[in-house]
Amino acid sequence: MAMRNRRVWGLFILGIAITIGIVTASLWGEPQELVQAQSVPMEQENQMRAFDTSQLDRILREEVPAVARQGNQWQLVYQNRPILVFADPESNRMRMLSPIEAEDLVADQIVKMMVANFHTALDARYAFARDGSVVSLYLHPLNSLQTQDLLSALAQVAELANTFGTTYSSSDMSFGTGERERANPVPSGGGVI
Questions:
Q1: DSSP per residue over 91-135, as a string?
Q2: pTM of the model as a whole
Q3: How much of the chain is in helix, strand and coil states, percent to nearest 5?
Q4: What angle do CA 131, 129, 177 make, to 5 degrees?
């Protein structure tokens, strides 16, 4: 009797698995189609893997007239902002930042920075460095960095630093807010953001 119950349950579970497989296949197509749709052409994949510190250096020098490099660190001025770029090929990371003069921060400014990080800072962010100083920051994996990412990062880091204390934004774009909220990113009364 116990053996018969096991067979019944086994057939029941097998039936459910087959049904799920049929439904999944009809909804998603054959697995091969999914793999083909998600695959990246070899040429693009090789370009993505090829990004390294020499490309980073070349693009920075093409974009900015005066770039100082020491190892995997660059100093430059972009849109009247000092910018520092750090690359760590072993960890596959690139960090770009611009210091912001904000010595006597008040709670309202910190809240505006954090709200801006959600709505108007886009890919750049306000952050505190280890020494407590405020910076405009952009982080990205080095090997998948593309030229457009780097150029966008330069513009956003500079703009976010330049708008500290006013609009707290990295560009004219805003994610999920209207013009009223963009002009004053801190909700009155501490409401939902």
A1: TTEEEEEEEE--SS--HHHHHHHHHHHHHT-TTSEEEE-TTS-EE
A2: 0.67
A3: 45, 20, 35
A4: 140
Phi, psi of 22 (to 5 degrees): -65, -45
Q: Which tokens hold the place of 21? A: 């497989």
Q: Cα–Cα distance between 109 and 166 in angstroms, integer? A: 10
CA distance 189 to 121: 22
Give the span between the Cα atoms of 155 and 150, in whole angstroms: 9
Distance of CA 59 to the CA centre of its chain: 20
pLDDT in tens, 85-103: 999 999 999 999 999 998 8
- Return the CA Rg of the chain: 25
